[in-house]
Amino acid sequence: MLAIETEHLTKRYSGRTVVDDVALRVPMRCVYGFLGPNGAGKTTTMRLLLGLLRADAGTIRLVGRDLAHRRRDALAQVGAFVESASLYDHLTGYANLDTTRRLLNLPQGEIDRVLEIVGMRDAARARAGTYSLGMKQRLALARALLGAPKLLLLDEPTNGLDPDGIRAMRLLIRALPEQIGGTVFVSSHLLNEVEHIADHAGMMRDGRLVVQDEVRMLLGGSATVAMTINEAEAGAALLRARSMDAAALDDQTIRLRCQDGALIQQTAMANRILVEADFMVSAIVPHARTLEDVYHDTLTSATSDYRRPA
Ligand SMILES: Nc1ncnc2c1ncn2[C@@H]1O[C@H](COP(=O)(O)OP(=O)(O)OP(=O)(O)O)[C@@H](O)[C@H]1O
Q: Are 214 and 233 members of one domain?
């Protein structure tokens, strides 16, 4: 069973398709990072998943329940914070959670359970108006955890936080799949963040899901090295003539893309070719592939489609 499964999910505004035939495959018990530039359709997709918008086509299953046919049951599996945390400043953290607890008709003990998860048992006695933004976000997360949902949808959870707040939120999110026995679906435009916290990632562009895979698979594949050389254009041209994947990044730097597992051998070969042709190579620095590379390779190319069959 998947935490989120969509088929042909489509949403149009005034004839313009902003979510286009999206097939999300989000496994259970993981952190899934949902990436894409502004306007790519992430928020619209999340609103569709939460039943806040009606799709023009396609289906949504949340933790095995079809959203159209078993709406209550499906949404009962989901906790979310989609807009930035809205709390009653004049109430304590505890009382804020208590209002939601009563609405959901949950036992009192639920509040202590969720406060424990977000590490705010003591702070919950203070009024929410005195909290830092990081604490407000954690309290909002605690509220989303009320009722023990198996799926959490978080929209830009570190937005506006300082470095300490970002770190605390990241650690918290990383530990959540284990603690809730479920999945955390996080939208973000911070590639570095998703690389640190997510096991799976999906990338949207112009309403389409153009990448979806395990993060370790996305980061695998070709590795690159940066070679510092006296004449990068000519050096890169020579390497390309010898069937190597090389490009001049600037006057003095060649980027050499190596096949999986062949980094050392291909780098040594490129170095020998250049030196034998009287180029001066002064540094060779391997560069581990990052999600930023995947993002740029994918989102800047009009034709690429990294989707793997599910
Ligand atoms: N209510 C609406 N009416 C018309 N167009 C809309 C509406 N909501 C969103 N859009 C358009 O749909 C597209 C996708 O927007 P969406 O907010 O889903 O993108 P996003 O990936 O979440 O971007 P951001 O990171 O900026 O929030 C955008 O072009 C946006 O202008």
A: no
